[in-house]
From TrEMBL:
It comes from the Eukaryota. Pathway: Carbohydrate degradation; glycolysis; pyruvate from D-glyceraldehyde 3-phosphate: step 3/5. Belongs to the BPG-independent phosphoglycerate mutase family. It comes from Oryza glaberrima. This is phosphoglycerate mutase (2,3-diphosphoglycerate-independent).
Length: 559
């Protein structure tokens, strides 16, 4: 919490004026990688971004968007949109998701907290259900954390445990789910040897079962509810490894789209429905794809689908997934306290702010940008606009998404003269990149570039300043590679498509007629990352950043 001598007033920048309109554009999933045919940004026609890169080298640079630069445990951890926007908005680096959970598990603190003690009340008579993504991808969850939680819970009195798995194939290799299920089955078998009734109870692919986000498609969550809670699914198996192998072969579905299944006993009865008196933990640490299930598990007056039966349970998330909604109300690990974000500082210093994206990334330019906080800081000075995303199709079907609409809203906000900062997220590179469709991702990158042009043209008209950046990589590399960087091939000789984010750095480009001619990027910051952007933006508004912020990327040299 801010100390008693604390002031929201930001000092004026000694050389940069106030009052310039600043456009802040986040290209989602837009990293920098070697130019080849799997780099969709390179292949696409992107004249605007090309001109920013090649036109003024002292006003274009790369920053880190993964690993420790965004608060994740290691340099092997790819960035994601949540931690990326947290860092962009907070101007400081906070221990995030996986890292918070790792610390709590390593210290044992997780077992002393209110959340664990709350679910523990059910261990004596009820079943402990664990629901989440089973993989070592490290974006939403991690297998080793589930293994530690199983061990810890069983040592602390859980007698009956059911695991409801969601297969990945998006942040990890498609087909790898079989190995993860085999590993989990081996652990559960060891628990059974110790007299604990521990089994897998249900499953399904993450994009078809449970893990929808931003209320895009509640049917996805309902399929999960039916399998996990009601114990009902179109496919029934006695063994989870057999379930995944058979469904992959027979339905031709990839891991992320496996249909829901339940595990049944010899008599065909589901082995693990959720009933009164049970405890449920959703073990993903990343929030966005757990919020909808959390609502279904927690809300009494839930109306998004017919839950049929609503068991009286004690439910906790691995983390709290939405701080404003206080959802869930119980959680095993406390979130990073992100206070004094750049957005709050700027609004309190009179900077009128407009933020816009489409549904799939609207939360990123608002909630995550503002330190995991919903709503306005001061609604007299802020306007947030959400454009509905396409639903019922995968994003490669319409790869332009809503880039044009977002750009037009931004343009209108800039030209209105009502706002000092106009902040947008253009989701195309990320959302279409995740589909693994290279041709569609090329189209997506072109659409994003065209949107940037509309925004920069408006900034030109009002004599403003722009900063264009990204939150992490994705579209710049669409193929899995070996250690020497060569594309990996599958057993049929085809390339292995990369659908996940990457470890690549992302660009920061600055300019506009309102930018002081003496502004250039500094060369004295060791390894700049996304968190350095906030102080830079504050400078563009005519302010110095708070002392504890990561340093600004720019300096002003006298001509």
């Amino acid at each position: 919490m801010a100390s008693s001598g604390f002031s929201w007033t930001l000092p004026d920048h000694p050389k940069l004026p106030k009052g310039k309109t600043v456009a802040l554009v986040v290209l989602d999933g837009w990293g920098e990688a070697n130019a080849d045919k799997y780099n969709c940004i390179h292949v696409a026609q992107t004249p605007v971004m090309d001109s920013l890169k090649n036109g003024a080298p002292e006003r274009w640079r790369l920053v880190k968007a993964h690993g420790t630069a965004v608060g994740l445990p290691s340099e092997d951890d790819m960035g994601n949109s949540e931690v990326g926007h947290n860092a962009l908005g907070a101007g400081r680096i906070f221990a995030q998701g996986a890292k918070l959970v790792d610390l709590a598990l390593a210290s044992g603190k997780i077992y002393d907290g209110e959340g664990f003690n709350y679910i523990k009340e059910c261990f004596d008579k009820g079943t402990l259900h664990l629901i989440g993504l089973l993989s070592d991808g490290g974006v939403h969850s991690r297998l080793d954390q589930v293994q530690l939680l199983l061990k810890g819970a069983s040592e602390r009195g859980a007698k009956r445990i059911r695991v409801h798995i969601l297969t990945d194939g998006r942040d990890v290799l498609d087909g790898s789910s079989v190995g993860f299920v085999e590993t989990l089955e081996s652990d559960l078998s060891q628990l059974r040897d110790k007299g604990i009734d521990a089994r897998i109870a249900s499953g399904g692919g993450r994009m078809y079962v449970t893990m929808d986000r931003y209320e895009n498609d509640w049917d996805v969550v309902k399929r999960g509810w039916d399998a996990q809670v009601l114990g009902e699914a179109p496919y029934k198996f006695q063994n989870a490894v057999e379930a995944v192998k058979t469904l992959r072969a027979e339905t031709k579905a990839s891991d992320q789209y496996l249909p829901p299944f339940v595990i049944v006993d010899e008599s065909g009865k589901s082995v693990g429905p959720v009933v009164d008196g049970d405890a449920v933990v959703t073990f993903n640490f990343r929030a966005d794809r757990m919020v909808m299930l959390a609502k279904a598990l927690e809300y009494a007056d839930f109306d998004k689908f017919d839950r049929v039966r609503v068991p009286k349970i004690q439910y906790a998330g691995m983390l709290q997934y939405d701080g404003e909604l206080k959802l869930p109300s119980h959680y095993l690990v406390s979130p990073p306290e992100i206070e004094r974000t750049s957005g709050e500082y700027l609004v309190k210093n009179g900077v009128r702010t407009f933020a816009c994206s489409e549904t799939v990334k609207f939360g990123h330019v608002t909630f995550f940008w503002n330190g995991n906080r919903s709503g306005y800081f001061d609604e007299t000075k802020e306007e947030y606009v959400e454009i509905p995303s396409d639903i019922g199709i995968t994003f490669n079907v319409k790869p332009n998404m809503k880039a044009l609409e977002i750009a037009e809203k931004a343009r209108d906000a800039i030209l209105s003269g009502k706002f000092d900062q106009v902040r947008v997220n253009l989701p195309n590179g990320d959302m279409v990149g995740h589909t693994g469709d290279i041709e569609a991702t090329v189209v997506a990158c072109k659409a994003a570039d065209e949107a940037v042009k509309i925004i920069l043209d408006a900034i030109e008209q009002v004599g403003g300043i722009y900063l264009v950046t990204a939150d992490h990589g994705n579209a710049e590399d669409m193929v899995k590679r070996n250690k020497s960087g060569q594309p990996l091939l599958d057993k049929n000789g085809g390339i292995q498509i990369l659908t996940s984010h990457t470890l690549q750095p992302v660009p920061v480009a600055i300019g506009g007629p309102g930018l002081h001619p003496g502004v250039k990027f500094r060369s004295d910051i060791q390894t700049p990352g996304l968190a350095n952007v906030a102080a830079t933006v504050m400078n563009f508004h005519g302010f110095e950043a708070p002392a504890d912020y990561e340093p600004t990327l720019i300096e002003v040299v006298d001509n």
